[in-house]
Amino acid sequence: KILNEKRDKLEFSKVVCGYPLSIFFIVVNEFCERFSYYGMRAVLVLYFKYFLRWDDDLATSIYHTFVALCYLTPILGAIVADSWLGKFKTIIYLSIVYAVGQVAMAVSAIHDITDSDRDGTPDSMTFHIVLSMVGLFLIALGTGGIKPCVAAFGGDQFGEHQDRQRRTFFSVFYLCINGGSLLSTIITPVLRAQECGIYSKQKCYSLAFGVPAALMVVALVVFIIGSGMYYKAEPQGNIMLDVCKCIGFAIKNRYRHRSKQYPKRQHWMDWAEEKYDKLLIAQIKMVLKVLFLYIPLPMFWTLFDQKGSRWTLQATTMDGNFGALVIQPDQMQTVNPILILTLVPIMDSLIYPLIKKCGLNFTPLKRMTVGMLLAAIAFVCAALVQIQIDKTLPTFPSTSQSQLKLLNMGSNSVTVKLPGNDALILPAAQVYPFINNCNTKFTNLLPETNDLTSKPQEGNNAIRFVNGMKTAVNVSTAAADFGLIEPFYYSNYSQIKNGKATFTLRSGSQSCEYSTNFGFGSSYTFFIHSTLVFGSNCQDSVTAVEDIKPNSVHMALQIPQYFFITAGEVMFSVTGLEFSYSQAPSNMKAVLQAGWLFTVAIGNFIVLIVAELAKIPKQWAEYVLFASLLVAVCVIFSIMAYFYTYIDPTEIEAQFKKKINEDDEDDKSKPGKAEVEMVKRDSIKCHDEYDKATQTKM
Ligand SMILES: CC(C)C[C@H](N)C(=O)N1CCC[C@H]1C(=O)O
C-alpha cells in the first residue's frame, strides 16, 4: 500500500530534467540552513571571548561542546521523525525551534539591552549568558534534529528506479551544504566587524547572528512552500520502541535457549521470531549490519576535524602573503568548501564514470575506503609541511636553560665578555641572543625582562620598544598602546597584525611617526635612538632589531593537504550519506542517517580527548601517528566491508510483505495447522529471500 501510495504521488509530481521539482525546495532549504549554522559558528568563539568576556579555555570548551551536541541531537530528531511525527512535520517543528534559538542568540548580542549606564558594555552579563546558552541549546536541538530528516526526506522523493538521480541528489545536497557554509563564513565575520548600537557603537555581533537567524526563517519558508509537492512517508508506529523491545526479546530468548539441545539459528536476531514480525526482524538486521560497519568510521572525522584546530595552528606559523591577497590563518579553512564545490562535480561527471569505463566496480564501500586513505595521505602532507616549518623556527631555551639578550644602546660597537665565553663585539643598536645553562651567573647586566619563549600566536607579530633617549616616550599605533616608556627602559610586547603599521612616538606635545611592514609570526625590538628629534621624521631614528624571523614557509604549501582531505571527504562523506539512505529500511531511514552523523560526533569527541592527552613533542610525529592510525582503521574497515552484502531494502520489504499476505491467506484456508511448523518453514523461506536480495559484496 505504501509503495503504491508513493508511486501515485511521484507519478503526479512535477518533474524537471528527470528530477522531482520538490527536490529544489529541499536543497535550497539545506543551503540556507547550513548558511545559518556555519555563519553563526564562525563568530561564536569571538562572541564568547569579546562579548561575554570568557577566557580562551572556557570559550573553546563551550564551543566544542556545542558542536558535539549538534551531531548528537540527530538521534533525537530521527526517533521523533521515524516513530512519531514523520520527517516533514519534524523538520517544520524543529526548524521553528532552530529559528527561535538563532533569534535568541541575536538578541543576546545586543549590548544596549542591559547597558543602563550607556558605557558600551552590558551591565547584566548574566542576562546575555543565559539567553545565549538557551539560544545555543535550541540551535543544537534544531540543527541536529532536522539534519538526518532533511537528507532522508530528500531521498524519499525518488522512486524505486531513480537510483542514479538519488545519487546525484546527495551530491547536490553536499554542494549546498558547502556553498552555504562558504558564503556565511566569509560574510558573518565581516558583519561582526561592523559597529552598531543605540547608545554606543560596538562590534556588531547581533547582526552577525541576526543574518543567520533570517536565513533560517528563509529556510523554513522555502521548505513550507514546497509542501504540496513532497512525498510524505507516514511513520509506521513507534518503530524505535518496537526495535528496542524486539532486540531485548531476542537477547533474552537466546539466553533462555543457550543449552546445546536447542538448534542454532542463522542470526541472533532470529531468536525474536517467536514473538515478532519477520519483517521487523529483517529490518533490524539491515540496520545493525550497517551500524556495525560504522564502528571504525569516527577515525576519519577525527582527522577531518583537526583541520579546524591543528592545521589552523600550523597556518599561524606560515606566510599568508599571496601578493594582492593576504590570507589569515583561519581563512585557510575556507579552502575545504571551495574544493568541495569543484571536486564534487569533477568526481561525479568525470572520475567515477572514467573508473566505470575502465571496467572497475567502484562500489560505495570501496569509495569510502579510498576516501579514508586520501585523508591519511593529507596528514602525511601536513607532516612534511611541519618538518619544513620546524626548520625555520628559532631555537628557544629549554627548561634547563636561560636566555639572555644583549642590546647595545650606544652609537659605537662595544666588546662584551660573558663568563665562560669568548669576548664578542656587539655593533651599535643590535641584539645578541645568548642561551646558556641556568646556573651561569651574570652580574651587572640590564634589568630583567620576560622574553618570548615561543612564536607569537595566531600569526601576529610581537613588538616591543626600547627607549634609548633621556626622556620618557609614549608609543602607540591604531591597534596597540605601548604606554609611557621610561629612559633606557623597554615596553612590554604587543601583538600587531601583518601588513603596514604606523607607530606614533610622543613626548609631551611633540610627536613623530614611524612606519614599517610586518609579515606573519615575527618579533621585533624597536630601538629608539638617543638622537631622535621630535617634530621631524623619526624614520631614521628607530632601528628594528629582529628577535624572531617572520614565517617563511608559504601557506600555499597547505593546499595539497587540503586537496587530499577534501577529495577524501567527497569519496567518504558524500558516498556515506547516500549509502546510509540506500541501505536503510523504509521505516528507519532517518535513524540510519542519524547513525551516520553520530560517527561525526564521536570523531569530534576523539579530537577533544586527543587535544588533552596528546603529549607528542613533535607536531609532525603526531600527524604521522594519526595518518598511521587511519590506515590501520582503514584496513579493518575494508575487511568488514568485504563481508558486507549490499541489499535493496525496498525489494526485501516487498517480498516479506507478499509472503505475509500469502500466509494470511493460507491461515484462513487451513485453520488449526501446527503453528510451530509453519514458523519454521516461513523462517527458512524468508532467509532464502533475504539471501537472494543480498548478493553483491563490497
Ligand atoms: C567544514 C565545512 C564547512 C563543511 C564540510 N565540508 C561538510 O560538508 N561537513 C562536515 C561534517 C559533515 C558535513 C556537514 O554536513 O556539514
Automatic annotation (TrEMBL):
Transmembrane segments: 12-28, 58-79, 91-113, 125-146, 167-187, 207-231, 286-304, 338-355, 367-389, 590-611, 623-644
Catalytic activity: L-alanyl-L-leucyl-L-alanine(out) + H(+)(out) = L-alanyl-L-leucyl-L-alanine(in) + H(+)(in); glycyl-L-glutamate(out) + 2 H(+)(out) = glycyl-L-glutamate(in) + 2 H(+)(in); glycylglycyl-L-isoleucine(out) + H(+)(out) = glycylglycyl-L-isoleucine(in) + H(+)(in); L-alanyl-L-prolylglycine(out) + H(+)(out) = L-alanyl-L-prolylglycine(in) + H(+)(in)
Source species, domain of life: Eukaryota
Keywords tagged on the record: Cell membrane, Glycoprotein, Membrane, Peptide transport, Protein transport, Symport, Transmembrane, Transmembrane helix, Transport
GO molecular function, a single term: symporter activity
Primary location recorded for the protein, binned into one broad class: membrane
Keyword NADP: no
SUPFAM superfamilies found in the cross-reference section: MFS general substrate transporter
Localization in the cell: Apical cell membrane; Cell membrane; Membrane
GO cellular component, one term: apical plasma membrane
GO process terms (BP): oligopeptide transport; protein transport
Topology class, membrane: Multi-pass membrane protein
Family, as annotated: Belongs to the major facilitator superfamily. Proton-dependent oligopeptide transporter (POT/PTR) (TC 2.A.17) family.
Protein name (database record): Solute carrier family 15 member 1
Species name: Lates calcarifer (Barramundi)
